[in-house]
Amino acid sequence: MNSMKTKPTHFFLAIALLLSFTAATQPTHEFRGVWIASVDNIDWPLRGMKNSDDQKKEFIRQLEMHKQNGMNAVVVQIRPAADAFYPSKLEPWSEWLTGVQGQPPFPYYDPLQFMIEETHKRNMEFHAWLNPYRAEFKIGVSSIAATHLTKTHPKWFLTYGDKKYFDPANIEVQNFVLEVVRDIVHRYEVDAIHMDDYFYPYRIAGKEFPDEISYKNSGTKLLKDDWRRSNVDSIIKKLNAVIKNEKPWVQFGISPFSVWRNNDKDARGSDSKAGQTNYDDLFADILLWLQEKWIDYVAPQLYLEIGHDKIDYAKLLAWWDKNSFGRHLYIGQAPYRAGSNTAWTNPCELPNQIKLNRQYENVKGSIYFSSKSFNNNPNGWNDSLKNNYYRLPALVPPMKWLPQKPQ
Q1: Sign of dihedral through CA atoms 319, 396, 39, 149?
Q2: Is 346 within a domain?
Q3: pLDDT (tens digit, 0 to 9) for every residue of the chain, 407 residues total?
Q4: For the CA atoms of 105, 110, 111, 112, what is the dihedral angle to 10 degrees?
Q5: What angle do the packed helices 313-322 and 349-357 form, to 10 degrees?
Q6: Cβ contact 354:366 at 8 Å
């Protein structure tokens, strides 16, 4: 009888010790975010979901799922293609909200205000995600309102592949994007403005981005690649100033492609063999922005597995840890890749990445792409997060260089 009592006691003691060890290894401050993409109805609203009440219920469902998984922030796409998920005098309602660009939601509501309020009710941060330069998602297919800028200011845009983009060299374009951001920060209680990896577009094989006229008209003495980088540098610096002048506690974050530059081109680059890079192809000099303190956080998209032959998660993680320049470093992670190859059929891939992240002092957390990936508990990762790695809640790491938001 005594031995029968002893075994359960030892068992429960072992479990208690395991849980206490897990708890002890969890940081008290850690950013735990999820991207919620609206472009092409990737995450929200669901395709064909046009009724406002249904949209609200679905957003709350996703928020609750992420809260239960231990998340403390959402990064929601509110301007995917020179359009708006909020009432705007500058740009039309998004086609991915109602199916028709320029058509308001029915019954009427302000989706951005609703999402911010619901997110804050759950003590989560709301990061407003904007695409600065994409204007027409698919030429000839996208719904384009008569009031859309591609109609009212056609000279602002360049066609590349099947999309239209704002010309990053155009000063009027830069000023317009600044005004869009100023308007959002002024009217809404967002915690951050967030931009992803789409600055100059990814290269299309055999096609040059058609900005030769802008380059010649600029009168610059810079080489074209340096001139392109200077155009992007300029708007990043101005965006930070606009945000901070409006509300100095609002963060500005960028989520770039995983590789700044390969080390075969630059000794400062990473041990990687990326086909395209931020610096050489997207003309986004992330290191400069970090050095100059123009951004508050960087969230590189490390979407490949530990041990990948060209872009190894572990190597890139170590490189970004050494190159964050005192700004917050959050790692963009890829539950969407579950089952995509042998590495991503392993239920330990994502947990191993989280454990690796926590070994680096400058890594302050993660952002996961994307919301819908968690719907079916891929590889049991929802369970891993809520029962283990995110079992204890964490506070968003404070940014000591920013003032506190007034209460």
Answers
A1: negative
A2: yes
A3: 343 444 444 544 444 434 444 444 799 999 999 999 999 999 999 999 999 999 999 999 999 999 999 999 999 999 999 999 999 999 999 999 999 999 999 999 999 999 999 999 999 999 999 999 999 999 999 999 999 999 999 999 999 999 999 999 999 999 999 999 999 999 999 999 999 999 999 999 999 999 999 999 999 999 999 999 999 999 999 999 999 999 999 999 999 999 999 999 999 999 999 999 999 999 999 999 999 999 999 999 999 999 999 999 999 999 999 999 999 999 999 999 999 999 999 999 999 999 999 999 999 999 999 999 999 999 999 999 999 999 999 999 999 999 999 98
A4: 150
A5: 20
A6: yes
SS3 51: strand
Distance CA 254, CA 290 (A): 10
Give the list of residues 6+ apart from residue 31 with CB closer than 8 angstroms, or none.
72, 73, 297, 328, 330, 364, 365, 366, 367, 396, 397
Say if 149 falls within a structural domain.
yes
Other C-beta atoms within 10 Å of 60: how many?
16
Please count the other Cβ atoms lying within 10 Å of the Cβ belonging to residue 249.
14
Contact 138, 169 (CB under 8 A): no
Residue 7 domain-assigned? no
Query: Is 400 inside any structural domain?
Result: no
| Cβ–Cβ under 8 Å, residues 227 and 167 | no
- CATH number of the structural domain spanning residue 125: 3.20.20.80
Contact 83, 131 (CB under 8 A): no
Give the DSSP H or E segment for 67.
Answer: helix 52-68
SS (H, E, C) 177-236: HHHHHHHHHHHCCCCEEEECCCCCCCCECCECCCCHHHHHHHCCCCCHHHHHHHHHHHHH
Please say whether the beta carbons of 31 and 328 come within 8 A: yes
Could you tell me the pTM of the whole model? Answer: 0.94
- Residue 47, both tokens: 């395709």
What's the structural domain count of the chain? 1
Both structure tokens of 401: 């260089």
Place of tokens 């979901």: 49
- Determine whether 284 is exposed, middle or buried from the number of CB atoms within 10 Å of its CB (0-12, 13-18, 19+): buried
List the domain range (segments joined by +) for residue 147: 27-389
